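User: I'll paste a sequence; please echo it back and then give the predicted structure.

Assistant: Echoing your sequence first, then the prediction.
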Amino acid sequence: MTPSFSRRQALLLSAGTLAGLAAPRLLRAQGQTEITVHYAQPFIYKEAYDAMLAAFAKAEPGIKVTYVTTPNYEEGAQLILRQASTGQLPDLSYQGFNRLRIFAERGLAQDLAPLLAQEGRPEQQGYTPNFLALGQFGGIQAGLAYAASNPVCYFNADLVRRAGGNPDQFPTDWNGVLDLAARIKRLGDGHEGLWFTWNGDDWMFSALLFGHGGRMLAADERDVGFAGPEGLGALTLLERMVKEGGMPNLTAPAARQAFAAGKLGMIFQTTALVRGTLANVGNSFELRTTTMPVIDREKGRLPTGGAAGMLLARDPAKREAAWKFLRFSTGPEGQAMMVKNTGYLPCNQLAIDQPQYLAAFYKDNPLFVPAVKQIPISVPWYAFPGTNSVRVTQTMVDNLARIVEQRATPAEVQADMAAEVRRLLPRKA
């Protein structure tokens, strides 16, 4: 059974709940090593991790794995930082790519490069340089990529037709998307045109910023990079979604519920939700996915979301057991289970290439294909430097809310957000 914690519970776990994390515990009577593994977002990952746990138990009967979950990556990062101060860390934690940096800089994440080298050339094990780069921070291999994603558009083909659109010729630019959204909204009866995942973290905002060819911070990381025309363009596009596309101010769960109920024409979100969205929609309408419009055709990029496994165990027996679990989860068998149970992209080349894993999967599952097409323009999810990275993310989300709620203009938000983020950046000599 996987425990799931609210925000308060995740940050205020009782000593009794995590007593087993405070000191190594080798179950010698049963010949088992028990490890605790943390991961975030069980509403996306649970089926994948459960399938992987069952397969791993058969392959490694001498290792018992207990899961601890948090609702999202941000609370997962806060949990690990809190437990690090009390010596109650789990043995393995799957963190969002943009949070690995803080753990590498604090010396919590262990360098996995020597462990990989002991098993032969990483590329021969499916760990290509691009996949390894997703987990490299602070000069070390801070994690192994477990799941990767990029943002895509999910749309209700039935509503598109009713609004006079053609699902086979879906708009490829934001002007066309906003026009179609407005037409869907005009259908009335509570229908909404589109919803863009602006809240939660900075990932989808970075999709708009990178799509304009912009960047989060300057190359030397001494100043913000979104204070220029690219940042203003990204914020202005968000405002246009509200004013021209009629985007409602909804929470992510409410938007997904509205989409599944057939009341929302389009939703822009991570490809990781393909499997869950398909299950929620069922046979209610024809569900399709397509690539996300990129503003600058030459410089435009999209962020790579997802998570990487970070080794924390210090006890030799637990460390060896946790490493085996991490290798299994990021190996071809674990990756195939992850992909088929979510919508994420695989992070192991063997899983992609070898027919017994995923070679035929994408041919039979077209909803998963748009994300694969976007891989060539996908770049790493930016990780802010310093100890305030989580606060930087929340600051950005709070400012984006002012646009969605129409309390401030894009120019006002850009100026305020830049000033606030500057104050949170680490000072450099």
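The domain at 7-149+304-379 is CATH 3.40.190.10 (D-Maltodextrin-Binding Protein; domain 2). The mean pLDDT is 91.
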